[in-house]
């Protein structure tokens, strides 16, 4: 299985939520989306939030904060609830606004059985935050996506060979000169052997990886420093081929954005018997908007287009037999 974790990184950027949208989420929830929107509106990276909490005598890890704003884990212990109350102050939110949402979510959320794949994805999401903090990434990267065309290549051994992206972004602050791309390999992936490749209008900068989860984060350095409102086109990709059989490709979007086109191409010697597109609100949530996709072309290619991306996850899965 292969999947991108949902996280607020430049690899999943869209427009920042407005103050009005934040206020609406504080009224309606759920907790994790309200927290995520508050972090984005205030422009605070998780590492800085952690420092603010530490100054107030509350110890909480960056990974835990990441889990909370993804909906992968809910604050429950006394120390965690104290951290949430301090978060309301750090993020300049009304008193008890996040705590109230926690209580509401707890009443409304159905029980969900534990699954190995779900736990693995949660661990990967936390690892992304840690790698991004090493590269000093802000919450939104100063960019949102106008359009993104992604091509995924599946080899004759059913492995993820690589993927290529053509990306158009718009800066919403001055001085943006990079993009952080995230790659998550299939089980068995050797992250140290994955190659990050820069294409048109960018070059590869620092690269970080996490062996246990098969994650790679790479800087794509722009050829120009952008001003607020500037658009920029660039290309990049990852060469993998180190993991086991692939059965899906999923991309997470922390914010709303423009058009997203996903194309999956299979080797003509290894064609799946069925392909479907789907959507998810969060990792582990039910997959909805199912639609069968028809293979076309000599290599066997499927695709779908999402005209306006919403926060959540989009992907394609397939059956080999």
Looking at this protein, list some descriptive labels.
single chain, 321 residues, alpha+beta, Immunoglobulin-like, 2 domains, 6-stranded mixed β-sheet, 4-stranded antiparallel β-sheet, 7 helices, 26% helix, globular
The CATH architecture of the largest domain can be named as: Sandwich
Stretches where pLDDT is under 50 for at least 5 consecutive residues are 3-14, 107-123
Q: What is the number of helices?
A: 7
Give a count of the beta strands, DSSP E runs of length 2 or more: 13
Major beta-sheet overview: 6 strands, mixed
Describe this structure in words.
The protein has 321 residues and is α+β, with helices and mostly antiparallel strands. It contains seven helices and 13 strands. The strands form three sheets. The chain has a six-stranded mixed sheet with strand order 4-7-2-1-9-12, with no helix packed on it. A four-stranded antiparallel sheet has the order 8-13-10-11, with no helix packed on it. Helix 1 (19-28) runs antiparallel to helix 2 (31-42) and helix 4 packs across helix 7 (116-134). The longest helix is centred in the middle third of the chain and has 19 residues, at 116-134. The model is unreliable at 3-14 and 107-123 (pLDDT under 50).
Summarize this, please?
By secondary structure, the protein is of the alpha+beta class. It has helices at residues 19-28, 31-42, 46-55, 62-70, 78-90, 97-108, 116-134, and strands at 143-154, 160-171, 176-184, 195-198, 202-210, 215-226, 231-239, 248-253, 259-266, 274-280, 288-293, 301-306, 312-319.
């Amino acid at each position: 299985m292969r999947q991108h974790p949902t996280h607020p990184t430049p690899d999943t950027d869209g427009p920042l939520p407005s103050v009005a949208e934040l206020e609406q989420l504080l009224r309606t929830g759920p907790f994790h989306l309200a927290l995520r929107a508050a972090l984005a509106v205030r422009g605070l990276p998780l590492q800085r939030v952690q420092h603010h909490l530490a100054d107030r005598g509350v110890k909480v890890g960056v990974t835990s904060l990441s889990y909370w704003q993804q909906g992968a884990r809910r604050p429950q212990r006394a120390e965690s609830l104290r951290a949430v109350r301090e978060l309301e102050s750090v993020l300049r939110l009304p008193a008890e606004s996040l705590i109230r949402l926690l209580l509401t979510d707890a009443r409304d959320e159905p029980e969900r059985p534990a699954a190995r794949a779900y736990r693995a994805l949660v661990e990967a999401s936390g690892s992304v935050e840690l790698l991004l903090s090493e590269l000093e990434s802000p919450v939104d990267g100063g960019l949102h996506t106008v359009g993104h065309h992604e091509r995924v290549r599946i080899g004759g051994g059913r492995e993820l060979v690589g993927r290529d992206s053509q990306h158009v972004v718009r800066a919403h602050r001055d001085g943006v000169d990079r993009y952080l791309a995230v790659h998550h390999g299939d089980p068995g992936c050797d992250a140290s052997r994955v190659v990050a490749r820069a294409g048109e209008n960018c070059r590869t900068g620092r690269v970080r990886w996490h062996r246990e989860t098969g994650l790679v984060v790479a800087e794509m350095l722009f050829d120009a420093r952008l001003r607020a409102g500037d658009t920029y086109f660039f290309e990049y990709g990852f060469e993998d081929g180190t993991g086991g059989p692939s059965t899906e490709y999923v991309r997470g979007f922390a914010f709303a954005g423009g058009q997203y086109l996903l194309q999956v191409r299979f080797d003509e010697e290894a064609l799946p018997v069925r392909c479907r597109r789907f959507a998810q609100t969060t990792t582990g949530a039910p997959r909805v908007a199912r639609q069968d996709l028809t293979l076309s072309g000599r290599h066997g290619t499927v695709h779908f287009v999402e005209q306006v991306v919403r926060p959540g996850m989009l992907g394609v899965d397939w059956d080999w037999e």
